[in-house]
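Student: I would love a firmer grasp of how sequence relates to backbone shape in proteins. I am handing you a single protein, as its sequence and its fold in token form. I am told such tokens are a discrete way to write the fold. I hope you can help me see how the letters and the tokens relate. Take your time, and here it is.
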Amino acid sequence: SSSSDEVIRKRLLIDGDGAGDDRRINLLVKSFIKWCNSGSQEEGYLQYQRMLSTLSQCEFSMGKTLLVYDMNLREMENYEKIYKDIENSIAAAHEKISECKKQILQAKRIRKNRQEYDALAKVIQHHPDRHETLKQLEALGKELQNLSHIKENVEDKLELRRKQFHVLLSTIHELQQTLENDEKLSEAEESQETQMEAEAKQ
């Protein structure tokens, strides 16, 4: 988090790399100045011992830092190896997936071809042979010829009935004209008789 980062930043500013090296160096400088300005031999020896102690602490801290650095290098190498192994595993997985896709496509093609073959086999199985087909075609040809004759006979009969019907209609029309003429003639005769009777009465 941001608060943790701020704490680490302040500690690095105060303690150098966080191990107190700046404080130790400051103590060493102060001890050296006091050793240089020491009045008595006893005080000089005391400051000298303090400098040795501070130097030992600095050497220990430096050794620890080197060990941590070496450990970090080994960890980085280990992480790089793990990362490469993961990359290789991913690449191998991609190759396997690609191969599986090819196998799936091939299986789909085989299945499709098998289905088409089965469908074609069923059609061939239900399809009659050539000899049987020719016999059926010959029978159909004879039936077609027979139907053609029947059709011609029916058309001839229809034509005859049409002519007969036309003659019948003409006869009916002539008869109707005759009846109308007879009716008109009767009306004229009745009118003439009525007129003659009227003249006789006069």
